[in-house]
Amino acid sequence: MTVSRTICLGFLMVITTGTLLLMLPFSTTNGSSNSPIIALFTATSAVCVTGLSIVDVGKFYSFWGQLFIVLLVQIGGLGYMTATTVLLLVLRRRLGLRDKIAVQQSLDVEGLSGLAGLIQSIIATTLFIEITGVLLLMPIFLPQFRDRPALALWQSIFHSVNSFNNAGFSLFSDNLIQYASNPGLVAIVTGLIILGGIGYQVIMEAYLWGRDRFKRLPCKPVFSLNFKVATSTTLFLLVTGTVAIFMTEFRNFQTLGSMDLSGKVLAAWFQAVVPRTAGFNTIDITKMTSAGLCITILLMFIGTNPGSTGGGIKTTTLRVLVNCTKAVLQGKEEVLCYHRQIPTALIFKAIAVLMGSTATVLIATILITLTDPGVDFIRIVFEVVSAFATVGLSAIGTANLSVPGQLVLVLVMYVGRVGVLLLVGAILGDSKPSFVNYPEENLLVG
């Protein structure tokens, strides 16, 4: 039982538990036992913080069912090993070496020291941001549920947790389309999504920098390479994504075309943020143009930053590959980023992530074209990438897929959450070092 197998099986255990809970009669509004397929799909989508659903969550599930979904989203956003570590700390058990290595791999951090303190800071940060989100969303939902303040509070909790954990479950039948022109909700939800997708390490560095500035300490701030790459790439993708969606959907009266200028900007900004990777929507995704769908697919495939609650190949992977291409075009033998040399092992990992992710999307797309031949190809690609990158947006309505197609998406969501490399490592086992060096020979490339 290797560390990678422990993590992969841990996620399967949580998904299985969530499926059984959602199958209970009191989890549904009609009081009858839930379908195993619906329960499995919803539990997988929640644990993998995706947000795809084949039922109307707000109408199909009772309060208890919705509560189970929130708990699964929270566990999935934190990660199985993080949640397990929290349980061990609550029980006042010391972390063993295997536990520390598992947490290190799941959080993608360096070193084994101080992991317990890191977990505590992650939990504190998560709770602080989510509670802040609840307090900010309450004034928005309270007028709509004036006679039921408890329901307004639950709506705030549900959407705050789903926003920060980059899941896209909503209790409204139209998701958040009715709030498309509400600047308050757009700002709060997109802010929570960005904070959840930026990564805990980046948040901690920003907090320490702000604390030092507040105390007016004389030390010069030194940000890590991960912080610089994560923030700059995220900002670039948000700005370019907003402009691209605004331009492609500007004249589409089924999405942005019927709005005024401020509404178009808000909706374009929102739809540029959510592919990073939270499946909320303020426009009808099924009515987007082919160009808009392609842009969204690209944003979803890239995803968020490492160590965050989101999915995708990650912004750092993209940056390494771009800088690697730039080095080749300039005839350089080393890959640089912000005057730092990228290790060769990291380049190999980035290439492996890209190849594994692309292969997963292609295989799943081919399978769904066989199970659902009547669906447009680009919309199948959109659905598969949304599932793999744990986004939750749907261009066809996931419920319209056949049961075999939905089961394919269940597998894709699981692969996207645990990670291609981690899953392959769990299947193949730990690699053994080789002490054999083979002769080098050139090969025609390109």
Q: How far from one another are the termini? A: 41 Å
- Class computed from helices, strands and strand pairing: mainly alpha
- Quaternary state reads single chain
Mean pLDDT level: 86
The helix tally amounts to 18
Q: Are there runs of 5+ residues with pLDDT below 50, and where?
A: none
State the shape. Answer: globular
Rg for CA atoms? 22 Å
Q: What proportion of the residues is helical, as a percent range?
A: 55-70%
Note the main sheet. Answer: 2 strands, antiparallel
Overall tally of structural domains: 1
How much of the sequence is in beta strands?
under 5%
Q: Which strand order do you get reading across the main beta sheet?
A: 1-2
Number of strands: 2
N-to-C series of helices and strands: HHHHHHHHHHHHHHEEHHHH
Which helices and strands, and how do they pair?
Layout: H1 3-22, H2 36-47, H3 57-60, H4 63-78, H5 80-90, H6 97-107, H7 115-141, H8 149-164, H9 183-198, H10 200-215, H11 225-249, H12 261-273, H13 290-302, H14 315-329, E1 336-337, E2 340-341, H15 344-371, H16 377-388, H17 403-418, H18 420-428
Antiparallel strand pairs: 1-2
Helix pairs in contact: 1-2, 1-4, 1-6, 1-18, 2-4, 2-17, 4-8, 5-6, 5-7, 7-8, 7-9, 8-9, 9-12, 11-12, 11-13, 13-16, 14-15, 15-16, 15-17, 16-17
Describe this structure in words.
- The protein has helices at residues 3-22, 36-47, 57-60, 63-78, 80-90, 97-107, 115-141, 149-164, 183-198, 200-215, 225-249, 261-273, 290-302, 315-329, 344-371, 377-388, 403-418, 420-428, and strands at 336-337, 340-341.
- The two termini are 41 Å apart.
- The protein is built from 18 helices and two strands.
- The chain is mainly α and 446 residues long.
- It has one domain (3-428).
- The protein has a two-stranded antiparallel sheet.
- 63% of the residues lie in helices and 1% in strands.
- Strand 1 and strand 2 form a beta hairpin.
- Helix 1 packs across helix 6 (97-107) and helix 5 (80-90) crosses helix 6 (97-107).
- The relative contact order is 0.11.
- The chain is globular, with a radius of gyration of 22 Å.
